[in-house]
Amino acid sequence: ITNEQNDIAEVLFSQEMIKKRVDELAAQLTVDYEQKDPLMVCVLKGASFFYADLCRSMKCRLFMDFIAVSSYGTSARSTGVVKIIKDLDKNITDKHVIIVEDIIDSGLTLKYLTELFHARKPASIKTICLVDKINKHQCEIKPDYCGFTMGDHFVVGYGLDYSDFYRNLPYIGILKPETYE
Ligand code: PRP
Ligand code: MN
Ligand code: MG
Fold first, then answer.
1. Does ligand 1 have an atom closer than 6 angstroms to the CB of 102?
2. What pLDDT does residue 1 have?
3. Which of 33, 140, 142, 176 could, after both became Cys, cross-link 38 (CB 3.0–4.6 A)?
């Protein structure tokens, strides 16, 4: 068995840290969106675990929908081109939309999605990300809700991939450079 844990140099956000923070964010959203029946949009595939844990921990009524986009493909760096692989199933007009992302790197994916959804005339639109790489932004972007900020490391786990691997690690860790260099 190839053990993906061997490719991790350092655990940055442990399972316990993630759970605690996700529950805090969910409690905040529950208060802020009480009576609003927010439409939680999962940005596949990276946000999948964060999305599931966040929605499960929220106590208010909510809708779920999924969009799949890709900017990285199989490379380790952003191409800057966002491709929609699967759009939302339903119309978001007059809905209170919350875009759920795992990570902001260049910010191009979230920026693109925010503008795309804005044009569909929702009642409101907010963004939440678990991890924000604050000094890597290539555009003006600030998530409305954020779990953690971090510096410039290549991280995987809890949905985050390198070449589609490592997503199912239960924590977020820094990948050893020799695995992708
Ligand atoms: C990753 C990540 C974010 C985006 C962040 O997705 O999950 O969606 O890149 O990068 P950015 O801020 O530079 O746009 P990716 O395109 O790798 O697809 P995936 O979620 O299926 O892994
Ligand atoms: Mn993604
Ligand atoms: Mg990816």
1. yes
2. 64
3. 33
- Tell me the whole-structure pTM to 2 decimals: 0.95
Would you place residue 158 in the very low, low, confident or very high pLDDT band (cuts 50, 70, 90)? Answer: very high
pLDDT in tens, 115-155: 999 999 999 999 999 999 999 999 999 999 999 999 999 99
The protein residue whose alpha carbon is closest to atom 13 in ligand 1 is: 106
SS (H, E, C) 8-57: EEEEEECHHHHHHHHHHHHHHHHHHCCCCCCEEEEEECCCHHHHHHHHHH
Q: Which residue ranges form the domains of the chain, and what is each CATH number? A: 15-150 (3.40.50.2020)
Q: Which residues pair with 173 in a beta bridge?
A: 11, 156
Ligand 1 atom with the shortest distance to the CA of 102: 7
Q: Provide the pLDDT confidence category of residue 2 given band limits of 50, 70 and 90.
A: confident
Q: Identify which of 43, 48, 71, 162 to mutate to test ligand 1's pocket (most ligand atoms within 8 A of the CB).
A: 71
Residue 72 near ligand 1, beta carbon < 6 Å = yes
- Give this complex's ipTM: 0.98
The residue to mutate among 66, 109, 132, 154, having the most atoms of ligand 1 within 8 angstroms of its beta carbon, is 109
| Catalytic residue positions, numbered | 105
